[in-house]
Amino acid sequence: MVIDLPGITLRPAQDADLNQVVSLERLCFAPTQSDADIQQAWFSQGLNRPGRQQMLALDAASGEAIGTYAQLDLQIFLEGQDLPAKGIAGLAVAPHRRGQRVARFLIEQSLKAFQAAGQQGNGSPVPLVMLYPFRHAFYRRLGWAWVGRVHQYAVAPESIPAYPERHNVVPYQAETHEQALYDTYLRSASRHNGWLRRQVLQWEMRLRPEPGKVIYCYEEAGKLLGYVILQFGQTGDRCTTVSILEWVAVNVDAYRGILGFLSSLRDQVSTIFWNTYPEDPFPHLLEEQRQAHTHAPLFSIVPPFGQIGGGFMWRLVDLAAAFRLRPVHAGPPFILTFQVRDPILGNQTITANFTAGRMHPVSQPVPAVVTTSIEHLTEMFCGMRRPTELLWTREIEFEGDRALLQRLEAAWQCIPPFCWDVF
Ligand SMILES: CC(C)(COP(=O)(O)OP(=O)(O)OC[C@H]1O[C@@H](n2cnc3c(N)ncnc32)[C@H](O)[C@@H]1OP(=O)(O)O)[C@@H](O)C(=O)NCCC(=O)NCCS
Questions:
Q1: Residue 290, Cβ neighbours under 10 Å: how many?
Q2: Could you tell me which residues are beta bridge partners of residue 145?
Q3: Which of 266, 310, 336, 365 has the smallest number of CB atoms closer than 10 Å to its CB?
Q4: Residue 380: domain span
């Protein structure tokens, strides 16, 4: 059910709103810092940037700013195609207005605006909205699906093979490597689901100098083929750790080079936190399948190996646009109707003709019908969950020839998304 808060208005923030936004951000994210610090650290280039629009909620009667968040313009790769998407970042509600459904109201309003953009032809359609939730349950009620998984292996560098390709790893130097690093990332991003086609804003955040953050590149004959961004840290008095913020390798030599380089840190570093996507072969290459420096078993006699993170969420908005853009595995053509429950944007029916590696929305419904929530449709669409599994758990319903559901499963089969960028 959509809520209505008549006393609150939501609009794009302007330069004149800077002080109010800074004050809200401080109260919500860094209450021990000063407004001046926040302004310098987060808004030194102003509130709005290309690809980033700050939004502001005001109490209509008093004009007081009570909530804010940023809308990001994103391009997200899925099966080799980049989908235009919106990101929602830094949702914040003034402490004295919490628990009054202000946050929920803001998210609902932004979803409706994204939907209207495509419908009225006064903007580009928004197939997808991505965010990192403060709580998954809050956004699940609004139609988002948890699709972003992170695996973090916490291993001793001694467990990582000292591959000889490590000798091709060199420190990053902006003058020589910057453009090649962008190109290498893009080459790899277009082959992975969920990675962003990065804009200036995302690159600024990724390469921003920070204490303990360093970049190493893998080069062959002067050509950059991979890189790793590391964050050094300290646990206790002497133990130095390294956390992987991002690794990119366009071929196996670069991958082995990065691993070999990490292995060579064994005299300085006690634990490597290798953050990655679940399909990464990393755990199989290690000499020891266990977490560094721990003896407590995880389950019976089984040692721990790392941690799993429940990360970002996606939500389909403009279904026709999303269906048109997403490539599917080619197979015999078939047609399915989807009846989609959407608590915020209204229930919808969409019929798609799966043919020649694409989905074409058609106007005439067919008797083979998948009945699903928007959340489960999003899960299936991005390969996070299989239609037959969702039918088995009774999270979706299906009427018609079961063979068609199998075809849907084959058409949408893909590696679920992963993303290095956090916002
Ligand atoms: C998170 C935040 C934006 C929520 O704002 P809010 O206006 O109080 O949220 P709402 O009133 O719309 O809450 C909606 C629902 O979420 C629940 N909820 C809100 N914040 C919650 C929290 N921190 N923990 C658990 N539940 C929470 C509410 O109980 C409510 O549930 P209901 O619909 O069943 O009643 C606000 O607490 C905040 O600004 N926090 C600090 C900044 C932050 O952490 N932002 C998120 C980072 S991305």
A1: 20
A2: 314
A3: 310
A4: 313-412
